[in-house]
Every structure is written in C-alpha cells, then in structure tokens.
Amino acid sequence: MKRGQKRGDDAEEGPGAPELCKRLRQDDSEDGAVDWRQLPEEILLQIFQYLPLLDRAFASQVCRGWNQTFHTPELWRCFEFELNQPASSYLKATHPDLIKQIIKRHSNHLQYVSFKVDSSTESAEAACDILSQLVNCSLKTLGLISTARPSFMELPKSHFISALTVVFVNSKSLSSLKIDDTPVDDPSLKVLVANNSDTLKLLKMSSCPHVSPAGILCVADQCHGLRELALNYHLLSDELLLALSSERHVHLEHLRIDVVSENPGQQFHSIKKSSWDAMVRHSPKFNLVMYFFLYENEFGPFFGDEVPVTHLYFGRSVSKEVLGHVGLTCPRLVELVVCANGLRPLDEELIRIAERCRQLSAIGLGECEVSCSAFVEFVKMCGGRLTQLSIMEEVLVPDSKYGPDDIHWEVSKHLGRVWFPDMMPTW
Amino acid sequence: MFFLKGDSVNMAPNSIHWFRKGLRLHDNPALQEAVRGADTVRCVYFLDPWFAGSSNLGVHRWRFLLQCLDDLDSNLRKLNSRLFVIRGQPANVFPRLFKEWKISRLTFEYDSEPFGKERDAAIKKLAMEAGVEVIVKISHTLYNLDKITELNGGQPPLTYKRFQTLISRMDPPEMPVETLSNTIMGCCVTPVSEDHGDKYGVPSLEELGFDIEGLPSAVWPGGETEALTRIERHLERKAWVANFERPRMNANSLLASPTGLSPYLRFGCLSCRLFYFKLTDLYRKVKKNNTPPLSLYGQLLWREFFYTAATTNPRFDKMEGNPICVRIPWDKNPEALAKWAEAKTGFPWIDAIMTQLRQEGWIHHLARHAVACFLTRGDLWISWEEGMKVFEELLLDADWSVNAGSWMWLSCSSFFQQFFHCYCPVGFGRRTDPNGDFIRRYLPILRGFPAKYIYDPWNAPDSVQAAAKCIIGVHYPKPMVNHAEASRLNIERMKQIYQQLSRYRGLGKNFTIFFCHAVFFPLACFPGYHHMPDTGHSSGLYRCNVSHDMAGPQHSGNRHRNVYCMLHEYHTVNITYSLYIPIYNILCGVQQATCCTQEEVLQVRGSESRNEILTVKMTLSPPLTSYNGKLQRSRRFMLPVGTSRVW
C-alpha cells in the first residue's frame, strides 16, 4: 500500500471524500490503530485508480473485500494490450494469463481499448484473436497501433476483417477508431457505418490501401458526427469534401492528409478549389494537416490554387518553387516544417510566407539554407506569434550583417524571448 | 600529499604510471606526479580485456592503439626510459608488480566513465592494501565533470544549451602541464632489463592474432607524434581560413583529413586542454584579442557534454534501465541490421559511408548522422544500441560516452532533440556531393552510373544500368526500404511516443502538431500532471508535485529532487522557453527551495521523507535582458491527458 498512499495524495477529491476521511480518522482514534477493513470501498477504488495493474493485483490478494474492489468494472474500462514477441521486440508483452482473465471476467467492462503490436505477424494475429473474442463488449474507442512496422498488413485480409467487424457489430457506440496501416476495406467500413454512424467522431485510417474513395465517402455520408479524419491523399475527393461540408454534418475539426508517392513520377489528382471553399465555409475553424512525402517533381497538382491547409509538413526534399507557391496559396497556414530543400537559399520564399501567412506560428527547417539577414527579417515580420521556431544551426548562412554568434540575439530580440538554433552534436 | 609507508619513509619512491587513455607525454599531470621526486618510474600499459569495456575492438582500433604504444615507447626511449606493455588484467598483475619493483606510488589519469571508475576503485583499494600511494589526475576532459554536475544541483545537464550555460559560469579549464622532459625526469630513472623487448615490448597485430593479409595501410596513423603534427596543421588551416565557424560540409569534407583530430583525442594522444588553449591563442591572435565564443570549442564541448552525462550513469549505453533514455519500441531485425552494417542497404549514400567506416575507421560527423538516422528513426527502426555496437567496433574515435550519447541523440532517445527531420538517404548525399565522387570511391561497382542516378540507381533506365555494367538487383542490391513510406511511418511512431510521454492529446486543437519536442519527456516520469487554473499573472500560486527524480528508486533517498514542469502549464507561464529567466523566490511549503534556471527541471532541496503536494509560490523576475520590457506568455501546446482517447 505504500504507493497507494503516495499517489492517493493527488487524487481529485470527490464530493464525499473529506467526510469519508473524517469517518476513517474517527475509527482510527477509537481503536488506536488503523483497521484497513474499514476502508470504505469508494476510497479504496480511488486509490486503486492510481495504481498500476500489477500493484492492484498484489493488493487484491489481501482480502476478499479488496479482491472485490479489484474487479470493479470502473477499473477495467480502459486497457492497452501490448503484444510483442521476444524475437522482434525489446519490450515486454501483456501476459497471456492476464489476457485470458480479462476476456473471461472483464470483456464486458472494456470501453477504451488499444492494441500495441510489434513488427511480427504473430503479434498482429494475437491482436485479432483477442478482438474476435470481444463479443459481449461495447467499445467506445479502439486503436490498433503498429509500433514498429505495419504488421497488420501481413495478415490474411479476411482474418483481420472478420475480427474487426466483430467489434463494429457488437459495439454500437464506437466514437473513436484508429486503424492506420491496416487492411481494412470498404465492406468492413460499411459494417462500421451501419452500427456506429451516430456515435463515430474520430476515424484515423492513414495508409489503408484496401479502402477506396467510395468506401470513405460512405462513412462521410452517414456519420454526421465525424469531427476528425485522417487518410491518404488517394482517398481524398471533391465528393468527400462536399459530403463533410453538408448541412447535416457537424463542423469538422481535423482533416489529416498523407501524400505519399509509391513510385517516382506518380501522378496525383487535384482537388477543386470550390470543394475546399465549401469545406471552409462549413467548418471555418477546421485544421487541415498535410504531410508530403514526395519527390520534387511530383508536386505538380499541389499549390496551384488556394488550399486551406493549416499544418504543412514536407518530409522529403521540396523545391524552392513549391515553397514559393506556399506563400501565395496557403493563407491559413499555422505550422510549416521543411525537412529538406536544395542548396539555394529560401530567402524570398520565407519572407513571402511571413507576409502572406498571417496565422503562421510555428516553423521548422531541417536541411535547407536561409541567409541570416533574411531569417532575421522573417522573424521580425512574424514577431512574437512564432511560438515554435526550430531551425537547425546549419540552415542559417552567415552574411555581411549577421554571423553565427550574433544571430540568436537578433532573433531573440524580435521574438521577445531567448532563442537558439537547434544543434546536432559534432562528433 | 605524500603518503609514505613503512620502510620507504626515508627513501625516494619507486613509481608506476599506468597508461590507459592519455597515451602521451605532453600535458600528462599524473605522469609528472609519478616522476616527481621519485627514484624510479615505470610506465605500464595493460593489454586489458576491460579496455573500453569491449572485447570486439576492430582491427583498425587495435592497430591505432599499437601505433600509439609504439610511439609512446619511442618517445620514452628518448628520455632513457621504456614502456612496459603487460599482458593480463591489472587487478591480477599489480600486486606482483608492486612487490617485484618495490613500488610505493601509483599514478594514473582519472577515468570518468562508470566502468572505469569501478575498475579504478578496485585497483586503489588493492594498492592501499599494498601500502602504495595512489595519485589520480584529471586530464582526459577539460573540466572536473563532478563540478559541472554539482553546479547543476547534482544532476548532469540534459541539454547542450544548459551545459553551455554551466560551463560559462565556471573558470576556464586548467592550463596544460609541461611535456615530460629530461629536466623533469631529473634523477628519476627507469630500470630496463636486457630482455625488456621480449617481456614488455609492444606486440604486433599478428602476435595478437589478427589476420593482416591485405590490410590497407592506416589512413589514421596512431600516436602522440602524429597528433602533435596534426594539431599544428589543423591550426594552420584555421588561421589560413581565418574563419572560426563550423566548416560547411562539402564533398571534400567527407574524406579523412590530415587535420582530423578526433581519434587522437579519444586515445588521449592529444590533450584536449592543449587543443583548447591553442585554439584560444589562435583566435586571439587573428581576431585581435576578442574573447572567443563557446562555439569555437564546439567539438571539445560536445565530447565534454556526453562525458558529463555518462559519468554517473552505468546504463548510459542501454535503453532499458537508463533514466535518461526514452523507451522506444524498436524493431529487432538481425537481417536488416546486417545489411546496414555490411553496406548492403541498396542506398549508395549509406553503403558508401558504411564502407568508408569499415575500411578506414572514421567518417564525417554528418555522415554519422546520415547512417544513424537511417538505422534508427529514419528508415529501419532498429535500436540505437545495435548501431552503437557496430560503431564501437569500427570507429576509431568511439569513446563509450560520446558514442552512446550521440546515438541516443541521433535516434531521438534523449537530450531533447527535434524529431521532425529525418535525413533522406538519397537527397542528403546528393546535396553534399552532387557529382557522387564519394560513392564512386567507396563503391566502385557503381562507378559507371552518371551523377543523375548515382544516389538512386534503381531509378535508372535499364539501358543506363547496362551501360554502367551494373544491374540493380544483380550486381548491387535494390533499396531495402521505400524511404518515403518508412519515414512516414517512423515520424508517426516517434510522434506517438512523444505524445504519449508528454500526454499530448494528438490531433489537438490549435496546438502544435509537428513540434512535440522531446523537451517534455521528463513529464513521462511525472505521475500527477494537472490542469491548473489560469492566474493571469506571471507569478502566483501553483500546485506542484515533488516526484521521484528520473534517476529512479535507487536515487530516491537523495537530497535533490526534481519538480517536473508542473509549473509550465500552458495557461500560466511558459517556462520551457524561458531558458535564462532566473526564477527566484521559490518557496515550497515550509521548505526553502533552491532553484536553478534550467528550462524544465526545478531543483528542490528538501525533505527526503515522502512525495507530497507542495504549494509553490513562484515569482518570475524580469529576464536578464528585458525584451521590450515584457514577458512573453505564449500558449503552450501541452494539454492535460484527455480521457476520451486511449492512445
């Protein structure tokens, strides 16, 4: 109970807690010693909530009462299954006996469930086995998380789908679903929609190659409460945006798009400006997060017209020209990360971005070059609204005005706080 | 200072100087102590399986080491002395040597690394039992590392910026001591027997069982003499460029340079203090007596930083049980690891670097970043520990501390590194060496490819591959991963880990999405992360929780405990970025807290009895330099843990 006492301190005090404490203390003074059996269940439960499972399990062996509390449904709402194989992971796995126990005694209590799966197919299979046994539970959130490589993709599709649909069919009130990098397909999404359309608020399904634009459109059409959506660019269509901005649909909060090229020179479709406009009219505050992992020559269909993107990430090299367009076409931009760019300095591009993107508050530059003066000018224009300014030291090219030693002073002055460029070890 | 025992009281002592690192006669204070007033001195080196804690030293490192020993021996000969190379373990052999040579004084250079400290403590004990006085001197690092830790309130600094702040508050390093000379030797002699060569000579690589057939000559010849030539060249070049910035990387800097110093610093053939003061002098001369900036000593200070971080952490080279290392669910994948280590990834840039490493024992530091990023968070998602072991074997300058520290850094496992940026295994090389000469040099099979395709030969049309006489997939492997897909996945994984650590909500509202700096990971150790009411002032009452410090339970009895960023709650005051805003007047309940200005950890000196909720009254004084007279109160993107989501 040592840890319980410690952590119990910062437990939120429920309305009845002070009184309970008083009661306890009275008992205490009468006997001269604490009678732990008298500890009201509410308090014990409170304490248990702050204990890790293993400690709870030890405590449950103290007496029948504590054991009963141990099995209180509230303590089993949330569970994270960690499925790792010794051959493919350094981390420990959830013990098989515990999994058995949970399925036997607590599966109907589970509401917030996630599976963390290492790179082995066995682990993904084990996750599916557990999923298909969750027949009498009603989940609110489900997350399938591949911690190393997308191991769910290695499974036979039918096996995965049948396990997932068990949850979809039984849950009826799923609100969040995170199934990135899985072989989920259109028919299974239909099952999801048929059973959970009223409750679904969040759907993350980046890199699910078996879903078609029509499949995701069906979700958007039916689930009017959907607020957050993450998917790959090939699923994005004008129809999808219009469906999300239909009158019956709630305001969208987040839309995350991953733009990944599978092979060089891949052609990407474009999205009409009118569809984006409809989206912004319907959900004026929504965040559009875009990750680009493209070769420089694949940016053709992007940034020609205005895009309501708020968070922009260029994971691979991006050309000076494209960045020039960003300043012109992304008025809602809040965050920008450029991992790499050619050897030509990005001076004008940054200044244009400072000029045009009035919401910009965070910027990160990796392998790029910017002259120190242009960078100072950029910071001066943005001023204190730049809350995140993460610039690799090598990015800043000294010029006649500023050297590497005084740039941080100049930038700090305009930011209103002390700032330094990011450094990598010289080794 | 002298501590003489028994019958040796009235006699000048017989000394042993024990070489480990610090393989030099210049700036070697412990060696001077050995000679001072002594009758005889013997310099010994153990060919020691404990060496660098590793048994798998590569042939390049062994050769470098033997060359150092040869050089040491020949320099000692000039002083009518010799080096005694002793086969065996110090703990087994020392007692015999003490007796045989009637030793009353043992000197060696201080080793700050945990296993070195352990070994030295054992030897000290042993020497004491034999009535031998032990003198230890610091000369492998610029500073006394314990002083740095002490100045930081008992914890090693975890950011380089913090480290620099501490350093700037300290006195400059001590001046190097004089080189050992005949004058210093005075009447101290080394008794050398006829069969010295047989008994104590420096062995050759063959004698140690290495196969040296076809071994190319050393690109990095070992030894103090070489080191001293190099430092002169190094400084000449610096003076010639009259530019003290970090040199920008180009195709040339990828190759081993005759002015490179890192292996010499690692083996101690070159004193870091000598280097430090030579740099200072040169800077003053060229820049007309201006005070040199800290950045001048970049290379030396990074080394010092990692030494400081490692000195009290025996698990510094591990993920599990290492309090400063984030646990990342790395993949175990021996085949992929082997491809990386053996230069068969199919990415010419990565393979060329790994080939250079294997052939020469050194690669440029940005090249290290490239291959380390590729192995870990960039592409393969393999543990940094595996990469560290490969470097340990192949890299001449892989100090235990610096090697492990750099790997943790580059894999975003510690030290608060931004992780949004991954080096591209195609683009990074192409920018550095557009022509691809570096690749042609180390991967001759790709020589025939034009510059356009040399970084991604798998994209070359068949005709180009045929003309180059190298078919990708036959003569040279296809790329082992799709970099775009791998880096998309891995960025996501990293974000996930740090979001969970900082209890950041994921796709949060109006908060930063790409910038989950590792700065917040100490929060992971923080049990009760609460949402605080907005006081609307930069000073006010904050509830705060004294938690175990990161060092974990074994340190929980310590007097110093850390209050993790309870005070940085986003509605109130942004401490994370107020690196240098001194925070005064921290009153913790009844206890007086002393507080440093570190960005994320407030040191609280207080009772060691139990964890408790304290009320902290925090007043922010104006920053040292007041920008426009106002304190910025920016919104933070940290949100308390959301209960609706489980990931």
TrEMBL record, chain A:
Span list, region Disordered? 1-22
Tell me the Gene Ontology biological-process terms attached to this UniProt entry.
regulation of circadian rhythm; rhythmic process
Entry-linked InterPro entries: F-box-like_dom_sf, F-box_dom, LRR_dom_sf
Any one Pfam family here would be F-box-like
Keyword terms of this UniProt record? Biological rhythms, Cytoplasm, Leucine-rich repeat, Nucleus, Repeat, Ubl conjugation pathway
Query: Where is it mainly found?
Result: cytoplasm
GO cellular component: a single term: mitochondrion
Q: In which pathway does it act?
A: Protein modification; protein ubiquitination
Subcellular localization(s) per the UniProt record: Cytoplasm; Nucleus
Name it: F-box domain-containing protein
Species of origin reads: Cyprinus carpio carpio
UniProtKB/TrEMBL annotation, chain B:
Q: Where in the cell is it found?
A: Cytoplasm; Nucleus
**The organism's place on the tree of life at top rank:** Eukaryota
Q: Which UniProt keywords apply?
A: Biological rhythms, Chromophore, Cytoplasm, FAD, Flavoprotein, Nucleotide-binding, Nucleus, Photoreceptor protein, Receptor, Repressor, Sensory transduction, Transcription, Transcription regulation
Which family does the record claim for this protein? Belongs to the DNA photolyase class-1 family.
Ranges where the Photolyase/cryptochrome alpha/beta domain occurs: 13-142
Q: Which organism is it from?
A: Cyprinus carpio carpio
By what name is this protein known?
Cryptochrome circadian regulator 3a
Q: Transcription: present as a keyword of the record?
A: yes
Q: Name one GO molecular function term.
A: DNA binding
Residues that coordinate or bind FAD: 299-306, 397-399
PANTHER family associated with the record: CRYPTOCHROME, CRYPTOCHROME 2B-RELATED
Q: What GO terms describe the biological role, i.e. biological process, of this protein?
A: circadian regulation of gene expression; entrainment of circadian clock by photoperiod; negative regulation of DNA-templated transcription
Q: Name one GO cellular component term.
A: nucleus
Manner of cofactor binding, per the entry note = Binds 1 FAD per subunit.
Needed cofactors, names only, are:
(6R)-5,10-methylene-5,6,7,8-tetrahydrofolate; FAD
